Amino acid sequence: MRSLDEELTDLADHYRWFAQVEAAPLSPRYAELAAAVAEDADVLAFLGTLPRPKRQANLLLGALQYLHVGPPADGVELHRWVTGDADRLRETMLARATQTNEAARCAALLPVLAGLPGPLALIEVGASAGLCLYLDRYGYEYSDGVRVGLPSPVQLSCEVTGTGLVPGGMPEVVRRAGIDLNPLDPADPDDVAWLQALIWPGMEERRDRLTAAAAIAAREPAEIRRGDLVEELPGLVAAMPVEATVVVFHTAVLAYLPAPAKEAFAELVTGLPVRWVSQEGVGVLPAVRDRLPEPPAPDEVRFLLALDGEPLAYTAAHGGRIDWLPAAALRR
Ligand SMILES: C[S@@+](CC[C@H](N)C(=O)[O-])C[C@H]1O[C@@H](n2cnc3c(N)ncnc32)[C@H](O)[C@@H]1O
After folding, report:
1. Which of 46, 166, 189, 239 has the most Cβ atoms closer than 10 angstroms to its Cβ?
2. Res 331: pLDDT
3. Please, where are the H alpha helices in the chain?
């Protein structure tokens, strides 16, 4: 059994790693704040009072943004906010979870879904507020000149390299459903405020997109079942309309599952009468990664987009980029 001192040393290392590796390339403010936490004995002691899964940097910084409608200016303000309002912060961190919902990830899903025989019944596992279920309600502009979608308050632009799938039009979606351990309600201002708080400083362009996508989702609610994706999936698939192609998809979800649960999910989904679209970190589904024509770089940060387990493209983790693999050209 580890002592609390040892645990807090590990926690400081986690915050240092988060600052240098995760935050520095995307959000200098978060990098500075996380580095300050690593050196702040009082803040580390506060984190030590929380259950281990609730000590993560994203959750602490998101909860501070949520309570103060924006991030602390620096480590000094962070220290004051944490030590001066510890009970409210603890309550928020215990009640909430990191479940960023990013509609921009749809720009990589669309070319794959548009190529499937319609109409489509969509099931998103790990849906959060379900914003990726409305991909047919958004407008798209790809860097190779392809434009799809009606004028929409959610306009997604996407860099494309290589030769891959080109969406000829918008798929017809007849059902939208999802599963999440903790579904968020896009019509609930508090849930939307939490999603806003999960956006890192330096990525402000994501805020208007989130507000606009949540308004679209709120007007046309999807059925999002509360529960575990492995347990709930067979029942939900069985409830889909028989005339539709059922598509099970997920983005930025399976990394949260332990390895046996990921394997159980992959086995389950490949045995169901569905098409399966995954967009996850490159090492998250080893069987998909092992089908890449070349091994990924050890420090690869892009996601891997795959159809029925076959890798088609690398994509940017928060959307906005597709780098097609040779297998995608063969599916044109
Ligand atoms: C990072 S969010 C991604 C949301 C959305 N897919 C997107 O790309 O914007 C991950 C979501 O997966 C959900 N999740 C994690 N493990 C799950 C499980 N075992 N069953 C169902 N949902 C799960 C979380 O609650 C969270 O809402």
Report:
1. 46
2. 74
3. 4-17, 28-38, 41-48, 57-68, 75-84, 86-95, 106-114, 189-197, 205-219, 229-238, 259-270, 286-289, 326-330
Ligand 1 contact via 105 beta carbon (within 6 Å): yes
pLDDT for 328 equals 83
Last residue of a domain, one of 60, 78, 95: 95
Number of structural domains in the chain? 2
Look at residue 194 and tell me if it is in a domain.
no
- Ligand 1 centroid–CA 126 distance in Å is 3
Q: What is the pTM of this model?
A: 0.93
Strands 310-315 and 245-251: unpaired
Span from the CA of 323 to the centroid of ligand 1 (angstroms):
24
Mean pLDDT of 238-263: 96
Residue 146 alpha carbon to ligand 1 centre in Å: 30
Which atom, in ligand 1's list, is nearest to the CA of 228? Answer: 20
Q: Among 256, 315, 318, which is best to mutate for testing ligand 1, by the most ligand atoms less than 8 A from CB? A: 256
Same domain flag for 118 and 217 = yes
Residue 299 belongs to what domain range?
A: 103-186+200-330
Pairwise CA distance, residues 116 & 122, whole Å: 12
